[in-house]
């Protein structure tokens, strides 16, 4: 990480279903990836640009970048000064619980627009992080619920259900299942397509249409997700790298940092600090 960049990705024991991030990035470029949780990122300085929904989105000071679970997106600075932000990543179950209690949304709740200009809500996100830093569980939990409620009321609605109707979509789903099962030793695109009774380019098109990224990008994203689970369980970064199919720890380090925003060792140390409290 460049000397002018810094980041902390952690969890607070009293908010077990929420990841927390405070960061300043200048040269950092997040590759296309997804999150299992919601992303609520409040920009403090600079501009973040992230590709989402087929277009570049711009979030500046006082705005929030909002990404629903399993939604492909990227991230980079919108200028030479970089950007500084704080983010909370609540789980889908927690957001659904808050939505059911405080909104009229029916179905699976989510955000309608990827950028919302709301300095008040952005300030609440930073207050959640401050309360977690100070060990103020009541404030952290209260403020998190307030900001999620506000964002859902201003910019929320039911997420569309992804239907798997076409033959191509069904092939993409089967391909994903194969890659999940063979994460450590995946087949080539040609072999995978042949086993599924289609051509490589037909599979590539179908997979991108369903999952928003080609199979090899999806596989890297999935490997990092599984590595996070192993690191949370106390597995060393070197062991996690091999377990998810990376050649060695340096390969895990590179991909992990480009998706999560911090190296796996720093990520695991923060998790261990929470467990030791």
From TrEMBL:
Q: Which Gene3D superfamilies match?
A: Homeodomain-like
Q: Name one GO molecular function term.
A: sequence-specific DNA binding
InterPro entries found in the cross-reference section: AraC-bd, AraC_XylS_family_regulators, Homeodomain-like_sf, HTH-like, HTH_AraC
Give the signal peptide as a residue range, or say none if absent: none
State whether keyword Lipid biosynthesis applies: no
Coiled-coil region(s) at which residues?
A: none
Note the superkingdom of the native organism: Bacteria
Pfam families attached here? AraC_binding (PF02311), HTH_18 (PF12833)
HTH araC/xylS-type domain spans which residues? 173-270
What are the protein's UniProt keywords? Answer: DNA-binding, Transcription, Transcription regulation
Q: What is this protein called?
A: AraC family transcriptional regulator
